[in-house]
Amino acid sequence: MNIDYEIKLNQDNDWNMKKHHFHENYEILLSLTNSGSIFLENTVYNIKRGTLILIKNTSLHRTMVDKKNLYKRYIIHFPESTLSEISSKKSDLLSKFCGDDICIQLSEKQLNKTILIIEKITSKEPEKFGSDILKDIAFVQLLIIISNFFNNNTNKNSTSNFKFNKVYPIIKYIEKNIEGDLSLDSISDNFYISKYHLCRIFKESTGFTLREYIINTRILKSCTFLRKGCNVQSSGELAGFNNNSHFIRTFSKLKGISPGQYMKKYK
């Protein structure tokens, strides 16, 4: 069995996700403090002690933290191949995790149970014979327990406010018209809102500037086409990039590899 995963305990007194954030691995975030909110795909979620979030390997997200509070959380990363490796015919973890992003609120009992397992995996005690296998077994146990939490917990943790409610139709409009004209002028004209007000409420509600959100949504869309086998130019055009050179430069900057290299990874 080849299990690839990483678990980190991060804590910051003054933390800010300065950049957009998406990655090829699945991510599970378990917050240990009341710390603000996270914009994930087209929803804003509160981050409280016990908030458990599953973030798909293609999801764009950004955390907006209350800088007055300590932000302490466990971050768990693992590739899709790990889910395939540890799944069985009766227990297909891949199917459990490949759906929508999920955010739930754990009870204190559920939280403490989860922390105990994570501490087994991240223990710094001297390595003994078989300790690596036991940690891998604990990691599998962790994913199974988390999967059951997601299936059984109906305590969703989304938040709603006037500003985000006003931005939500704009987000849906961008998704629907990703190939078309998404200039600031066209969006503000479509929603009968001033460009200044549009930019301000979008940034306040999502943590992204409007331009950041559009570019990154287009890059994520292009990734979908590249994984399906579309060539580089077609993938860029279908995602709304009119200039192939600009698409390649933007993709390479945000993903760290060229779209051609990305496509080869999934062939």
Description:
This protein starts with 5 loop residues before the first strand and ends with a helix. It has eleven helices and eight strands. It has two domains: 6-152, Regulatory protein AraC (Jelly Rolls), CATH 2.60.120.280; 162-265, Arc Repressor Mutant, subunit A, CATH 1.10.10. A hairpin with a 2-residue loop joins strand 3 and strand 4 (43-47). It is of the alpha+beta class. Helix 3 (108-121) packs antiparallel against helix 4, helix 5 (162-176) crosses helix 7 (195-206) and helix 8 crosses helix 9 (232-238). 30% of the residues are buried. The strands form two sheets. It has a five-stranded antiparallel β-sheet.
> What level of helicity do the residues show?
40-55%
The overall average pLDDT, rounded, is: 89
Number of domains: 2
CATH architecture of the largest domain: Sandwich
CATH class of the largest domain: Mainly Beta
| Tally of alpha and pi helices | 11
Any idea what the CATH superfamily of the largest domain is called? Regulatory protein AraC
Largest sheet: 5 strands, antiparallel
Instruction: List the secondary-structure elements in sequence, H or E.
Output: EEEEEEEHHEHHHHHHHHH
Structural class: alpha+beta
Q: Shape, please?
A: globular
Order of strands across the widest beta sheet?
A: 1-7-2-5-8
The low-confidence parts are none
Number of strands: 8
- Provide the gyration radius in Å: 20 Å
Q: How much of the sequence is in beta strands?
A: 15-25%
At CATH level 3, the topology of the largest domain is Jelly Rolls
What is the end-to-end distance?
A: 24 Å
